[in-house]
Write a structure and sequence with these properties.
Elements: H1 8-29, H2 35-56, H3 68-94, H4 97-104, H5 107-118, H6 125-142
Helix pairs in contact: 2-3, 4-6
Length: 145
């Protein structure tokens, strides 16, 4: 029987918990600081913590062993992450966390669409219904009537 730490659902749920804490901690943390500078501070913390984990667990590999295509897409992913964080922190500075976070989760809808369009992923009808419900739910949570 596989361990819970070998289950993707465990890690996805843990990610959701930490993402929720990110929104709450960030909203409190940016109260008296520029949102872009706050993003820089957060990024430095992430780099330090991840460096300690990767080096501490011996998970490094020679940089010249990484294919060019991998470098390209990890660089693009890093640029997209940075842009996302800057936009997210700016949104948190201007809006309520309970509204910003659901709109940010529209990324779930976009991932499904982009996955289908660009990398050939296929969702079942049930999957597309779930994606639609996430989209509708995000809008319902974010819009004040």
């Amino acid at each position: 029987m596989p361990s819970i730490v070998d289950n993707w659902v465990f890690w996805a749920l843990l990610s959701a918990v930490f993402a929720a804490l990110t929104a709450i901690f960030a909203k409190i943390g940016i109260a008296d600081i520029d949102s872009d500078f706050a993003t820089l501070i957060r990024t430095v913390v992430i780099v330090l913590v991840l460096s300690a984990i990767v080096f501490g667990m011996g998970k490094t590999q020679p940089l010249d062993s990484i294919p060019g295509r991998t470098w390209l897409f990890l660089t693009l992913s890093g640029l997209a992450t940075g842009a996302s964080w800057l936009a997210y922190f700016r949104a948190l500075k201007l809006g309520q966390a309970s509204q910003v976070a659901p709109v940010d989760k529209l990324s779930v809808v976009l991932v499904a669409i982009f996955g289908a369009l660009f990398i050939g992923e296929r969702l079942t009808l049930q999957g597309w219904i779930g994606v639609a419900l996430v989209g509708v739910g995000a809008v319902v949570l974010a819009v004040k009537l």
